[in-house]
Design goal:
heterodimer; A: 437 residues; alpha/beta; six-stranded mixed β-sheet; three-stranded antiparallel β-sheet; 13 strands; 45% helix; B: 290 residues; 74% helix; globular; sugar transport (chain B); MetI-like_sf (chain B)
């Protein structure tokens, strides 16, 4: 009797669940013909506000599409959350905050939709004026998996106040000039360092974007490091970068121990700087003023190399559409992107909110952004460097490969444990073996 | 028989269900995954047999994890046993407010590993007051980039975290030793060292045994502090099993391979705890404590 009761209860629950599930037609449209797209935004309040505002405006003009914006969970990282969601078949329609390396991992596993296959892609590129910028984003299979939101050319910051004390009016541009600065710095301030950065001794893969790749992209004139499954890095450029680091070490110009706010406290006078730093400084270090106590420059280059149009690493992130999205959801996602990026005002709003340079060709020439850059002159060098910025490698094994760069080359060289040539050779061997796997 | 024990099964069912859902099913799934090259995302994956296991035992990260765990054990277990025993002794000797002090020492156990790691990172930075002072007296240590000091720093944070928890167990052990025994020993003229070896240690042995086994278990599960402070470096010097599994599964997207590492880690953990437990039991029996 009891069993019958329990069984009928379970059956009723199952029927109710089936009936509820029936409300959705399985093509991404609800019974009222509305398409709902789920958009995972970066887990920071400013980007949340931006995307929610965009979604609201879009929905007003497109009543048949709902855009649900929610933050990507960071448990423990946003990448891990996305992987878990895909594995658990609960991936959103689209998400932002995806770097090129992670996109390559997802694309290799067929988890992403090639955006160039969705109608409206070409229109989007044209309308946003990003024909040149998007070229460096093409993946090795000739597809475009990421719609770049911002392309942030990484620049080096210099403590110009200290440089002036040493007799320099502008940052040095070549390796030998930097070594001269180091010598003068150590003579005047033995406790200060040229580059105080604990991450130089850390093998974590992404940390190489903000030291090795900035210097390598500059030294190699933007030559690729990996193409498809091939190691194509210029040996000369790579060895020169490592030798530069080694020379700085020999002059006692490197501090590879962790230090709190080393650049702000002028313990180190040279550091990689992204535009996100300035909002942080406004709050925590209001005394940091552009061209008063810090200046910005492109990476230094080996002696004899042109110091004009120097390449640098581009910290870039963008939007992807997941393969689990239905046809209607894909179309709606493209429509949403077209809505956001067809109006430069939305990019301006982005720039004002996040201070991250939109990935467009006309950033330094479009009148819409002029007033912003006049008001924020420290961001102008970033906008100007966009065309020379090289995005991250698009190999799915980028984590393993960049760990080899750290573990076998950069980390031991800055500690004086291996000479630059040997470090490069061992790194190259390990990377080639990894690519063969 | 089933009908007779119905109530028992009913009461045990929540745990059984929990065990099946969160232990048995993931274990079987993990065993299966460990023989594939699945990356958590791809709909297609291949059967690799025992290749993942062979690759894992050859990998420097896995080899490091094996040895690093025992190094952590060698540093953390003595640290936490000494500190928790001292805390327990002090609290045991207090005339009042024992509970209040125990709660105070227990609080770090509830603290977030991320927060405590970040605080320590700040304390050990090159320009921290501590390091400025140390350099002033001629001591200059690269705390987190030197293999030994990085290992000791992580072990010390975990010891700090667990001291209060283990002190709670040891205090209960101290409290259970009757004062009469000490009084009788004093009348018989027993010296203080004899009192420790012949009375305190044997009677504290059950609590100490528990704390030892628990702390050895902790050594196999270290992650947050390493993830936050050293990332497993320098050059794998603090690379724990959990760190290696995390890196392979979520950074390198090699879920199949990471499952193989997880299985190797669980076998090593199970075997090590079993052996150490047996040795502790033999030690206790030989001395007539159990």
């Amino acid at each position: 009797m009891k069993f019958k009761k329990t069984a009928s209860l379970i059956l009723t629950a199952l029927l109710a669940a089936s009936a509820l599930a029936g409300c959705s037609k399985g093509d991404g449209k609800s019974a009222d013909g509305k398409t709902t797209i789920e958009f995972w935004a970066a887990p920071n309040p400013t980007q949340q506000v931006y995307w929610k505002e965009m979604a609201k405006e879009f929905e007003k003009k497109n009543p048949k599409i709902d855009v649900k914006v929610s933050p990507i969970k960071e448990s423990p990282t946003s990448e891990a959350s996305i992987q878990s969601a895909i594995a658990g078949k609960s991936a959103p329609t689209m998400s932002e905050n995806i770097n090129r390396g992670f996109a390559a991992q997802l694309a290799e596993s067929k988890a992403l939709v090639p955006l160039n296959e969705i109608e409206g892609w070409d229109k989007l590129i044209k309308k946003r004026n990003m024909t040149d910028t998007i070229k460096t984003w093409k993946f090795s299979d000739d597809n475009q998996y990421v719609m770049p939101i911002y392309s942030n050319p990484m620049l080096f910051g210099w403590r110009i106040d200290v440089l002036k004390e040493l007799g320099y009016n502008e940052p040095p541009k070549t390796y030998s000039e930097v070594i001269d600065v180091t010598k003068k710095l150590k003579a005047k301030y033995p406790d200060k360092y040229l580059w105080a950065k604990g991450d130089l001794a850390d093998p974590t893969a992404w940390k190489r974007w903000f030291d090795f790749f900035m210097l390598y992209d500059a030294a190699s004139n933007g030559n690729n490091f990996i193409e498809g499954d091939k190691f194509v890095a210029k040996d000369k450029a790579g060895e020169e970068v490592l030798k530069f680091m080694d020379d700085l070490r020999k002059e006692d110009g490197l501090l590879t121990k962790q230090a709190t706010d080393p650049f702000e406290s002028a313990l180190g006078i040279f550091t990689d700087l992204g535009p996100w730093t300035f909002s942080y400084w406004e709050e925590k270090f209001p005394e940091m003023k552009y061209n008063k106590n810090f200046a910005l420059s492109l990476p230094p280059v080996p002696d004899g190399q042109s110091t004009k149009n120097v390449n640098t690493f581009a910290d870039t992130k963008g939007i992807v559409v997941y393969a689990s999205a239905t046809e209607d959801e894909r179309k709606a996602a493209m429509k949403f992107m077209n809505f956001v990026y067809s109006n430069p005002e939305n990019d301006l709003k982005w720039l004002e909110t996040t201070k991250l340079p939109p990935a467009r060709d006309d950033l330094s020439s479009n009148e819409s952004f002029k007033a912003f850059f006049d008001k924020n002159p420290e961001l102008k060098p970033y906008a100007e460097a966009v065309p020379n910025a090289i995005p991250a490698i698009d190999n799915a094994k980028f984590n393993e490969l960049q760990t080899h760069i750290g573990r076998l080359a950069v980390n031991p060289v800055v500690k004086g444990e291996v000479d630059p040539e040997k470090g490069w050779k061992e790194m190259k061997k390990a990377i080639k073996e990894e690519l063969k796997k | 028989m089933m009908k007779k024990n119905g109530t028992g099964w009913l009461f045990a069912s929540p745990y059984l269900l929990y065990g099946i859902i969160f232990f048995a099913v993931p274990l079987i799934w993990s065993l299966y995954l460990s023989m594939t090259d699945w990356n958590l995302i791809s709909p297609v994956y291949n059967f690799k047999g025992i290749d993942n296991f062979i690759e894992a035992v050859k990998h420097p990260g896995v080899q490091a994890a094996f040895f690093v765990t025992f190094k952590f054990m060698a540093a953390f277990v003595p640290m936490v046993i000494v500190s928790s025993t001292l805390v327990a002794l002090v609290i045991h000797g207090l005339p009042k407010f024992k509970g209040l002090f125990l709660i105070g020492f227990f609080l770090p156990y509830l603290a977030s590993g991320v927060v405590s790691s970040l605080i320590v990172k700040g304390l050990l930075s090159q320009n921290s007051a501590l390091n400025v002072f140390l350099r002033g007296i001629g001591i200059d240590i690269d705390w987190l980039s030197t293999p030994l000091s990085a290992l000791l720093v992580v072990a010390a944070i975990i010891a700090w975290k667990f001291t209060g928890y283990y002190a709670l167990i040891l205090t209960a052990g101290f409290e259970s030793i009757s004062k009469d025994v000490y009084e009788a020993a004093a009348i018989d003229g027993v010296s203080s060292s004899q009192r420790f070896w012949k009375i305190t240690l044997p009677l504290l042995y059950p609590a100490l045994f528990t704390v030892l086994i628990l702390s050895i278990g902790v050594s196999f599960g270290i992650f947050t502090e390493v993830y936050q402070l050293t990332g497993g470096g320098p050059n794998y010097a603090t690379n724990t099993w959990q760190m290696e599994i995390f890196k392979q599964a979520f950074t390198n997207l090699s879920a199949g391979y990471a499952s193989a590492v997880a299985i190797i880690a669980s076998i090593v953990t199970f075997a090590a705890i079993l052996i150490i437990r047996k040795l502790l039991e033999i030690w206790g029996k030989r001395n007539g404590w159990v």
